[in-house]
Amino acid sequence: MTHPTASDHIDNVLHETRVIQPPAGFAAQAKVTREEYDRRYRQSLDDPDTFWGEVAGELEWMKPWDQVLDWQEPHARWFVGGQTNLAYNALDRQVERGLGGKRAFVWEGEDGEVRTFTYSELLSQVKRAANALLALDVQSGDRVTLYLPLIPEAAIAMLACARIGAVHSVVFGGFSVSALADRINDCQSKLLITADAGLRRGGLVGLKANADDAAAKAPGLQHMLVVNRADSNPPMQEGRDVWWHEALAAAAGEHEAVALDSEHPLFVLYTSGSTGKPKGVLHTTGGYMVSTYLTMETAFDLKDDDVFWCTADVGWVTGHSYSVYGPLLNGATVVLYEGAPNHPDWGRFWDIVQKHGVTILYTAPTAIRALMRQGDEIPAKYDLSSLRLLGSVGEPINPEAWMWYARVIGGGRCPVIDTWWQTETGSIMLTTLPGAHPAKPGSAGLPMYGIEPAIMTRDGEELGPDDGGLLVIKRPWPSMLRTVYGDDERYRKSYWGEIPHVYFAGDGARRDADGYITVMGRVDDVLNVSGHRLGTMEIESALVAHPSVSEAAVVGRPDDIKGECVVAFVLPQGDQTIDPAALRAYVTREIGALARPDAIYIADALPKTRSGKIMRRFLRQIAAGKAIEGDTSTLEDPSVLERLAETDAV
Ligand code: WT7
After folding, report:
1. Nearest to 525 by CA among 613, 403, 634
2. Rounded to the nearest 5 degrees, what angle is found at the Cα of 151, between the Cα atoms of 149 and 152?
3. Among 261, 266, 325, which Cα is nearest to 65's?
4. Most buried residue, 142, 203, 427, 625, by most Cβ within 10 Å?
5. Using CB atoms within 10 A of its CB, is residue 530 exposed (0-12), middle (13-18) or buried (19+)?
6. pLDDT in tens, 457-471
7. Lining residues, ligand 1, CB within 6 Å
8. pTM score, two decimals?
9. Which atom of ligand 1 is nearest to the CA of 431?
10. What residues contact residue 127 under an 8 Å CB cut-off, 6+ apart?
11. Distance between CA atoms of residues 153 and 161, nearest Å
């Protein structure tokens, strides 16, 4: 599959000129000033060894590193020779600094139940869980898949893995049986940690049932550790399945964190790429720890008394870096919420902010737009005065949603930061610093320390101000992915091989004269649905696997709430009839509800070039209800487009 050029399909719609200064009250108290940012940013590029050495030195190392960075393009090793433990730094270190009684997690279930864990309590749970994993013969370097609702046990399990050097692979609880089985098999996990069920919009999501079906397709799996979340009494397989609470009760309470090499693998997290197979993005211990620690404090201006709430599920990288690792490394208090934003009604987020005194809220544009649509009266019913800073992540935020977020939720006193990063980058790459930089709604802003971005053409030519091109990063950073699990060739090709000697992010962007970068969206065959990446090829493979479908093409269509939604063009197999409802159910079962097509066009042919390549550009126009524009002369049969344009979506 060849990549279109950036200008091919980036709608350069944002011509936003507003500049919003940091609210004076905020700026006066902020940790980082403009001068401080300029000085440290300069240092981070001019003398990275000193810069990163100082940041890493704020954390605990069981053995100091010999070398800050060893860069053998495209492979980086950070803090070479050093040994540390992320769970130790996140928990034991906080208890040793006297934060044992401070709240680490305040968790709220969808049913309203609240559970609080101090740093000491969390540490003792993690120690027990670590011993329970060891008792199930999980050893350093072994992979463990987590398939859980957003309950405290998810974070406890992640930290327990990190503590013993096991590599966690969290699979979002909304993913299907096949998606789960593929991910278990790809990294050959020997243990699956799941729950009987999760709560979603008042109903139960049967995770254990999915886990059982996935286990049947995953021969390497040895055990299943099952959290009792919902008392739903699932069948337990003798010899294979173990209750979490029983395993922890039987485990010893003491556990000493293991000294791990800085480059010891920490986790694998699967994300969509432009081919059908999800990529297992691999992160390692030391570098990921240092970057999440630094960005958490700097981007969020984090103070001791903050109550930080990142609404992402732990199944995504945002939940890894900013619900678990980043905040705990800084000794922060974190709110976790299990359920849907509209259960029992659209006031739920604001109720949580009010009840727990949330000071920093970090959420996605898709949620902001959905909440905005419910009207200002709903948030007006709640006391949101505890909030002091708002963050956005996952996709470009449209200026209208940005302004609403700042005005209605932030009451005009909270800065809004728009943070650009990826599963692969591990931590925030671009943002404005809330007390130091004016914001430009719609533009993510400036590079974090140590990050050297550029806008380039596909040939590696750097573009000047306001020219749209490809977003790249010109040097390695500590939390950069190390490889694609089990497929280093794919790592080389997708990230450092696309444009020579730079990291290619897959996004189109432009930079203005002030250095602010506006990210315009993906330039590869990846959709961004509700802030989540979905590969078009992956959905197409699922569609053609259905017996009634012979060929399929998937494109994105702009959507007011989701950002983009999935539109599928399908051709029937022989004389079969395609049942759209059955096809939607099939995609949901094969991948997950996120991938379900909003619109399906049943066609008799797809627009192809003479060499057989599907011209998605035209399909995107049809999906958006636009007139066909552009050169159709390379099409094998241009009449296909006319027929498609007359077809109604189902
Ligand atoms: C892709 C990464 C780590 C964030 C959660 C998603 C898009 C992310 C922004 C932003 C414009 C953004 C990009 C990126 N994206 N944040 N602030 N402005 N686009 O992580 O699933 O790895 O997706 O999300 O297209 O490449 P992900």
Report:
1. 613
2. 145
3. 261
4. 427
5. buried
6. 999 999 999 999 999
7. 271, 317-318, 393-396, 418-423, 444, 505-507, 519, 522, 528, 531-533
8. 0.94
9. 17
10. 163, 252, 253, 254, 255
11. 12
For 21, 309, 640, the CA distances from 194, given in Å and listed in that order, are 46, 24, 48
d(CA 284, CA 266): 5
**SS3 readout for 344-381:** CCCCHHHHHHHHHCCCEEEECHHHHHHHHHCCCHHHHC
Backbone dihedral region for residue 201 (phi beyond 0: left; psi -120 to 50: alpha; all else: beta): left
Give the other-Cβ count within 10 Å of 66's Cβ.
10
User: Minimal CA–CA distance to 216: which of 197, 235, 198?
Assistant: 235
> What pLDDT is attached to residue 15?
57
Contacts of 140 (CB under 8 A, 6+ apart): 164, 165, 166, 258, 260, 264
Nearest CA owner, ligand 1 atom 12: 395
Regarding an ipTM greater than 0.95, the answer is yes
Classify strands 563-572 and 549-559 as parallel, antiparallel or unpaired. antiparallel
71 CA from centroid of ligand 1 (Å)? 26
Positions of the chain with pLDDT under 50: 1-13
What's the pLDDT tens digit per position in 191-235? 999 999 999 999 999 999 999 999 999 999 999 999 999 999 999
Q: SS3 of 324, please?
A: helix
- The three-point CA angle 403-407-412 to 5° equals 120
CA 451 – ligand 1 centroid, Å: 16
Cβ proximity of 145 and 184 under 8 Å? yes
* Residue 558 confidence (pLDDT): 94
Burial profile 18-50: b = 16 or more Cβ within 10 angstroms, e = fewer: eebebbeebbeebebeeeebeebbeebbeebee
**Structure token pair of residue 432:** 């404005």
Q: How many residues are present in the chain?
A: 650
Q: Determine the pLDDT at residue 5.
A: 36
DSSP 517-562: EEEEEESSSEEEETTEEEEHHHHHHHHHHSTTEEEEEEEEEEETTT
Helix axes 48-57, 34-46, angle to 10 degrees: 110
Contacts of 267 (CB under 8 A, 6+ apart): 158, 161, 162, 167, 168, 169, 170, 282, 283, 320
Tokens in use for 499? 């444009």
Ligand 1 centroid, distance to 526 Cα (angstroms): 11
| End-to-end CA gap in the chain | 28
Comparing CA positions, the residue from 615, 603, 521, 524 lying closest to residue 569 is 603
Question: Could you give the CA distance from residue 335 to residue 150 in angstroms, rounded to a whole number?
Answer: 11
At residue 634, the pLDDT reads: 83
The token duo for 65 is 């590193």
Tokens of 197: 């069920």
Dihedrals φ, ψ of 44, to 5°?
Answer: -65, -30
For residue 611, the model assigns a pLDDT of 77
Which atom of ligand 1 has the smallest separation from the CA of 423?
A: 22
DSSP string for residues in 273-290:
-SSSSPEEEEEEHHHHHH
